[in-house]
Amino acid sequence: MMSKLKMTRKAATRSFGSAALAFGALACATTPVLAQGANSPLNIPANPVMFGKNDPNVRRATAIVNGEVVTGTDVEQRLALIVSANGNKVSGEELERLRMQVLRNLIDETLQIQEAKAADTPADDAQVDATYERVATQNFGQSGAAMEKYLTRIGSSSASLKRQIRGELAWQNLLRRNVQPFVNVSEGEVTEMMQRLQASKGTEEYRIGEIFLAATDQNKPQVFANAEKIVEQLKGGGSFVAYARQYSEASTAAVGGDLGWIRLAQLPAELGAAATNMQPGQLAGPVEIRGGFSILYLIDKRQVLTADPRDALLSLKQISIDFPKGISSDAAGKKAAEFAAMAKAIKGCGDAEGAAAKIGATVVANDQIKARDLPGALQETLLNLPVGQTTPPFGSIDEGVRVLMLCGRDDPQVSSGPSFDELMSQIEDDRVNKRAQTYLRDLRRDAVIEYN
């Protein structure tokens, strides 16, 4: 349901329902009430007195959601997927926070599956199995059977992943029937948006990932500390997409926090200022904004309706050699120098296979690589490389040494931007997602949830 090119920022916070207000008994004496706005229905004293012990560090990760059990096994198997996505580099403290977030996600998932079933829009087994096979092939390069073995090895299961798929598909089915038909976008709105796009031609667009954590005046220090810990984990190599899916309280959590291509003026001023000097691959935050804190990750940037050299389609040949196991640094250096001399002497792409065979190197060709999909250092080198020439050698003793030879380049055409229908679809998607957030909030509010 998420469009990859959003016209507006979708950081609607998750509201809390009655099930989440497990404060214990509050002594509401004659203490002053917190300032919460004229329209707030809550009447919370400024200095509540807690009756009974409430240790925030003690949680039991199981729940019964409208009579359906979320087991500890469900939580641990889903958690194993996240830990694996982060290269198993998760501290004990972070693991506990992730465990509780996984439980909250499983509760939401259960509510979505239940609501879809009640509305007669569940995801059938054929839908789930087909999506599972596609995920295995596209995301992991494996068959369904190999994927199942991998999941078992990391402590998860195909049942856990299929349940997540079932929840997402069921929710999409439900939104498609109960929400999407009631979202209307006028032709005038789309025309106006297209005119604004044309007027902004040449200005920079940013593709940004966001993790949004909601905060109130009362819990702001704790939320900020939590955001700092997430940033620390991300800088240590954690997966931004995995953390966004688990922690972000914006509707874009389902797509790993991806806001799509936007202009900085579309963001709150604080976030726009933070992103101004960012380069692709950089993090910023936590940044305080209205309603909480945001962590930003700059995925990429480009100029609106302007051809980007990095969209050039490259035809490449990779020539590589591997080092024998246990080779000394001196021997590896000598072999690498021999390889570099061979690569420099190659007379065009047609000569690559013959020259490589003389020193036992291998050649792999690919005619469909976008320059922007390559590491940053190689992008610059290849875009300035004449056809038939090679990059300087790169690699390591463990991975071997390789060069890339440029055999052709198709330069990108100037983009005319999204079509009328594409833009209308993008605006509709944005509105559907906002209504979906409200829908889920209402499900949480009305749910009967027992924590074990």
From TrEMBL:
Keywords: Chaperone, Isomerase, Periplasm, Rotamase, Signal
InterPro entries named in the record: OMP_Chaperone_SurA, PPIase_dom_sf, PPIase_PpiC, SurA_N, Trigger_fact/SurA_dom_sf
Domain PpiC stretches: 203-300
Region forming the signal peptide: 1-35
UniProt-recorded Gene Ontology molecular function terms: peptidyl-prolyl cis-trans isomerase activity
SUPFAM superfamilies: FKBP-like, Triger factor/SurA peptide-binding domain-like
Protein name per Swiss-Prot or TrEMBL: Parvulin-like PPIase
Organism in which the protein naturally occurs: Novosphingobium hassiacum
